[in-house]
Amino acid sequence: MSLVSTNKIDANKFELEIAADAAAFEAAIEKAYKKARKKINVNGFRKGNAPRKMIEKLYGENVFWEDAINELIPTVVAPAVEEAALELVATPDIDVTAVNKEDGVKFKVTATVKPEVTISDYKGIEVSKNVKAVNDEDVDKMIESLRERNGRMVTVEDRAAAMGDVAVIDFEGFKDGVAFDGGKENNFELTLGSGQFIPGFEEQIVGKNTGDEFTINVTFPENYQMKELAGQPTEFKIKLNEIRSKELPELDDEFVKDATDFDTLDELKADYKKKLEDRAAQTAEMEADNALYEALITKMSAEIPEVMFEHKIDEMVRDFEMRLSQQGLTLDMYLTYTNTDKDAFRKTFADRAANEVKVRLALEAIAKLENVEISDEKVEEEINKLAEQYKMTADQVKSYVSPEAIKADLAVAEAAKIVKDNAKING
What we know:
alpha+beta, Alpha-Beta Plaits, Chitinase A, domain 3, Trigger factor, domain 2, 3 domains, four-stranded antiparallel sheet, about 20% strand, extended
């Protein structure tokens, strides 16, 4: 193999001319023949034993050329890319420009590479960190949430239904006086105000008493999934069988003892306040980091190939699919439930993907400028951490992610630390 020439044809594209000589081509043909002969029948020979020359005579000299070229490609392209010192960001386009047994094979490879990045003034970036103050109202909300989780449903007999109640109802829907499919249910438990039913339905149950039988009138939304009902006025015959309301426990030390690991309400409030303050500090730290990175990418100049954004979106989609699978769902199921197509779904990741790609490129450029060096010991330490985290062996971790990739990630992390340590963070 020889790299004949390297030509830059665009900001992030190179064209490589590569040649595989006659000997390399012959070796690839022989390899292709040995793989294919098991499937070839030739009269006078047992299956798989026909000589190559005989097969070529029957089917043409070039019968194995296509397979041979496919054998050659991985052995010639990767070394040529390495020799040209190119860092690819996508699978290259490969064209065969010439092929014959005397001269071998010539390839033209079009490669998209990582962009050249320039960055300056990345030290001393000024951002604000605003930590939200925690007040008694915030603590009270957490305590009310605890009471809600520990409440019990009781039957209401001394008043009419109100928002927030659970109404146990029989209902049947009619359009133009005719009952429609899916519009009937008995002893259905409907939380009033939940928005579970179409607009206007739940509101018309409010004020009714247990045992009441009545009719309500509603119009289905224009975008309702059942087209025969979309935008149509309908009536529902309702019987209110029962009204249930959540009874909350008394807020005192006894409740705290029963529901938590604390002995008093004051202890619980103090714990909730500390948790909220820690959360507020973390949120402020994250927002300040985001602001810092947003400012950082304005200091960078680069012509970024679109394929890098698309690959990052692919990565995000795969991650989303994995999390869905843990819930027993597929992406197709999710798209159906949310009435979204795949293109629209991918677009939801576009801004975040673009931002992450830009930040990564900026930090990689800083790591180079700062001569960040990551030792093999640090890489091994990180591999062992990952192994412990995911309950794997170090070798298993290496089968999923290369030490080189880990080294690159650690260099980026070090660059991020440099930016943050030198930033002016107000607040």
